[in-house]
Structure formats: C-alpha cells, structure tokens
C-alpha cells in the first residue's frame, strides 16, 4: 500500500505520517509539501531516513510535478492535508487560499482520475458549516448540516469539498471527506490559539484574546484525529462525508486561563483585543456517524492532552524559537502590533 500524503510537513500531516509509520510498517508513505511558512522538515526529522518514506518538496498546484509523482509511485491512496490553514491570514490575503485549497485540490483530483487510485481522501474542517449560536448549546453540526462558510479560508475549504464530491458523482472517483474540529498537539505552528498562547505565556508576553473570549471551539487531540482518518481510509464508504469531533467544547478564555494556570503565570497577561472580522461564534460537531459506523470516539482527555502539549512545547523550545526568530515575527507584528498597543 502506497499513500501519497500532501501537506505532510505541517501540523496534522506530520502527526499523521508518524502515526501511520508507527502502525503500518508495511506501508510506503510519499509526502509532497511546498514547505510554506507552516511547513517544517523538522516535523519529519524522525522519518526522513526511512526506506518506506519519501519526501518531495513541491506545490500541489504544479500539475507536471504531481503527475510525475503519480507515475513514479502509483499511489493507492491520496490524503490531502495541503492547505493554507489559518483564518486570520485568509482575511488578510485570500488569493493563496483559493490557489492552494481549491485549484491545488483540483490538480490532485485530476491526477487521481488519470492514474487511478483506490481512494482520494480530503481532509476538511467543521468550519464549512459556518457557526452555531452561543445560546443554543443543544445544536451540533451533522454531516447533513448546510454548508455556510464565514471566512475566505472556510469558503475555500467548502469549494474544495464540493469539487471532491463532484468528481465522485461525475467521474466515479472513489472519494471520502472528513470534517474535523479544532486540533491541538505537538508540531502546531504557533499562530493558532493553543500553540500561540503557550509560547506567549512562557515568554511573559501578552495573550491576545479576540473580543470577549466567549467564542466556543470543540478541541480534539491531533492523535485522535489521525486515528479517525486511518479508520476512514480503511473502512469509509466512497462518496461519504464523516464528521470528526472531540466532544470537548470550551470558551477561548477558559483555554487561555488553563494554560496560564498550568505554566504558573498570572492572568494579568490576558489582553482582550479587537475581534476577528466575521468571527464564528461556536463550533460543535456530532460524532454520531463515526461512532455508529466504526465505533470510533475521541480518547484523549483534554486536561491531560493539554498538559502533555504544554510539556512538548517546553521540551522543544528550539523548534519554536527557530520559528519565532524568523519571518513569522513580521506576521505577528502585522496581526497584533496595533491590537496590543
Ligand atoms: P498547517 O498549516 O500546519 O500545514 C499545512 C501544510 O501544507 C504545510 O506543511 C504547508 O507547507 C503545506 N502546503 C501549503 N500549501 C501547499 C501547496 N500549495 N502545495 C503543497 N503543500 C502545501 O495546517 P494543519 O493545521 O496541519 O491542517 C492540515 C489540514 O487539515 C488542512 O487542510 C486544514 O484545512 C485541515 N484542518 C485543520 C484543522 C486544525 O485545527 N488545524 C482542523 C480541521 C481541518
Ligand atoms: O490570537 C488569537 N486570539 C484568539 O482569541 C488567536 C490566534 C485565536 N483566537 C480565537 C479565535 C477563535 O475563536 O481562538 C479561537 C481559535 O482560533 P484559531 O486557533 O485561529 O482557530 P480557528 O479559527 O477556530 O480555526 C481552526 O480550526 C479549524 C484552524 O485554524 C483551521 O485550520 C481549522 O479548519
């Protein structure tokens, strides 16, 4: 079995590669990644020398390169993680989101059709469903919920999902889609809520909380996401969408306070800043289909998972120091400079 993993040098993709190589010694994994600001070969350090792993630096929009990889490797399965993934960046500059998330996906779908695959899996997000009101805690997204994205990021992911489903209906391509809630864990680029707050708190820097901090996200440990993806690759039915959730809804402010407490830092570091435009209120996802069809449910306890994640960042300071010493600081200044004045 050969799996082509796109975006495997990013947060979830690299965790997935580690997970698969640990659990399936007989699989070959081929990774294509453009190594954008979010891609980091250090995330794959442990597997780079393995005979059943190959890394190719490249863009999923590069049709010629993608076709060449298909010719050389004849992948049985393609799993598409490659994306621009940060909502705030999509608000600043949507162009690259449409390019990679939509057109890049199309290039992969075309190659999958041309060379034939047993499965094309699209890694999508709960954000395609838009948001839920804070006062209706009984509501959750199901696979049948209407698609109603709010940001250029989520609109691009929705467009990609629809394209994937169209390739199934029109060309009979064997596809599956998963829509997951907010991930946390090792190797997450420090622009997302949990990773950013851990590093700022550690460095005694202000913790920028958007609006009143009462927006709600459902958090899942990346290990649980990877396990669910593997199950869908093995057992998922063609043409189906599967929601993956953590059954773990929290207000942002609660998360920030938990991180401060764990690190023994004062709540005075919290700074309420100008809200994100179009900020989604609440995400909550029903995992009923995954539970009913595969008996899957998320296993990592959030308090424990968060503690382990904080420890990972403490033990891997050189990993994130390299990031925050470089290009990333220019983004940080643009995004938070005015807000934190
Ligand atoms: P990430 O930003 O950490 O990683 C994305 C990776 O894709 C990087 O390694 C980057 O170099 C690569 N990439 C970007 N453009 C590329 C291109 N044109 N060609 C090849 N590679 C390219 O993202 P992540 O958080 O690991 O998310 C992975 C996937 O999961 C995305 O599709 C995202 O939409 C989805 N997702 C993420 C979350 C989350 O909480 N992080 C939740 C649900 C779904
Ligand atoms: O500095 C911050 N302050 C803050 O209050 C940041 C970066 C975030 N927030 C808030 C905004 C959100 O309500 O925290 C919440 C989480 O924000 P992000 O980490 O940016 O994630 P989100 O916008 O929820 O999207 C994430 O989950 C779904 C991922 O980035 C997406 O790739 C995924 O599809």
List its salient traits.
12 helices; 3-stranded mixed sheet; 7-stranded parallel sheet; alpha/beta; Rossmann fold; binds thymidine-5'-diphospho-beta-D-xylose; 341 residues; 43% helix; binds nicotinamide-adenine-dinucleotide
Question: Quick summary of this structure?
Answer:
With 341 residues, the protein is α/β, with parallel strands linked by helices. The protein has helices at 11-23, 63-73, 87-92, 95-115, 152-171, 193-202, 222-235, 252-263, 288-294, 302-315, 317-324, 328-336; strands spanning 2-6, 28-33, 53-57, 77-80, 119-125, 175-180, 182-184, 207-210, 216-221, 240-244, 249-251, 270-273.
Could you characterize what this model shows?
By secondary structure, this protein is α/β, with parallel strands linked by helices. It is built from twelve helices and twelve strands. The strands form three sheets. A seven-stranded parallel β-sheet has the order 3-2-1-4-5-6-10, sandwiched between helices. Helix 5 links the parallel strand 5 and strand 6. The chain is globular and about 55 Å long. The structure holds nicotinamide-adenine-dinucleotide (NAD) and thymidine-5'-diphospho-beta-D-xylose.
């Amino acid at each position: 079995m050969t799996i082509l993993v796109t975006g495997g040098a990013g947060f979830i993709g690299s965790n997935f590669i580690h997970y698969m190589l640990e659990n399936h010694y007989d699989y070959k994994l081929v990774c294509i990644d453009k190594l954008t600001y979010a891609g980091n070969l250090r995330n794959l350090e442990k597997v780079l020398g393995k005979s059943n792993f190959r890394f190719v630096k490249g863009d999923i929009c590069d049709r010629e390169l993608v076709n060449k990889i298909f010719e050389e490797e004849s992948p049985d399965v393609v799993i598409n993680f490659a994306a621009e993934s940060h909502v705030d960046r999509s608000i600043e500059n949507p162009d690259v989101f449409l390019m990679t998330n939509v057109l890049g996906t199309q290039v992969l779908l075309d190659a999958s059709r041309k060379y034939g695959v047993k499965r094309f899996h699209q890694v999508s997000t709960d954000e395609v469903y838009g948001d839920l009101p804070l006062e209706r805690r009984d509501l959750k997204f199901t696979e049948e919920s209407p698609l109603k994205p709010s940001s250029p990021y989520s609109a691009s992911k929705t467009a990609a999902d629809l394209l994937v489903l169209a390739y199934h209906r029109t060309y009979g391509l064997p596809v599956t889609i998963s829509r997951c809630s907010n991930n946390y864990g090792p190797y997450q680029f420090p622009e997302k809520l949990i990773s950013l707050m851990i590093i700022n708190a550690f460095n005694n820097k202000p913790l920028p909380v958007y609006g009143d901090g009462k927006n709600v996200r459902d958090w899942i440990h990346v290990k649980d996401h990877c396990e669910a993806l593997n199950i869908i690759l093995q057992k998922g039915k063609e043409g189906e969408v599967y929601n993956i959730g953590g059954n773990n809804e929290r207000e942002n402010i609660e998360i920030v306070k938990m991180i401060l407490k764990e690190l023994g830092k004062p709540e005075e570091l919290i700074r309420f800043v100008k809200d994100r435009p179009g900020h989604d209120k609440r995400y909550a996802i029903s995992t009923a289909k995954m539970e009913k069809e595969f008996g899957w449910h998320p296993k990592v306890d959030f308090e424990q998972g968060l503690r382990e994640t904080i420890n990972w960042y403490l033990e891997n300071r050189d990993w994130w120091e390299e990031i925050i010493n470089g290009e990333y600081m220019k983004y940080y200044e643009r995004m938070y400079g005015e807000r934190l004045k």
